[in-house]
Amino acid sequence: MVLKHTAAAALHLPADALDLAYRPGGRPHLRGLAGTEVSLAHTDELIVVAVSRTGPIGVDAEPVTRRPSFDLLHSYVCTPAEAAELAALPEDDRTARLLHLWTLKEAYTKALGHGMRRRFAAFGFSRDEQGRTVLADEPAGAPRWTLATHLVHDRYLVSAAHRPLLPVETASRPAPHPLEETGLPPAATLGWPLPGSSGAQPT
Fold first, then answer.
1. What's this model's pTM, rounded to 2 decimal places?
2. CATH of the domain at 60
């Protein structure tokens, strides 16, 4: 219900006009709306919905209080380069960074339609010259993935992965639907220090 009503608000359509279905593997989609992608994540009382008309999108959310074990999970979640970078961090920073990687990787695999079926250690993230998180070894000339992680209400990490297939048009976007005007403060975008640096870098 939340996914349908959020998509309806974003697309300026009545919710009862949307037909929500699921692809093999459980990925939701809106039947009859080719080119429209949706993704859903929830944890505790937080529900996150993403809607895209410009390419695949995935979202994931986790409480910041979750403490994943690096020793137990690094071989599943991290590439060798990521594991080496995390191993050099203090324990609290390592745990926070591992949770950050987990949400990003789950958002990315959900955008691909793979979900948890794809081993997270089979692909990795790195940082570009501006310090932004990017997909490692992304083919040259391919549409680049946009990756971001936000801190919501100081309680949740929300990560999103989007690959725009066409230029995004923003100049003619209509006024926000009332459901979009939540009155909530904007989420903070997380930054993580590069090895050997003293400042935070944007994701």
1. 0.80
2. 3.90.470.20
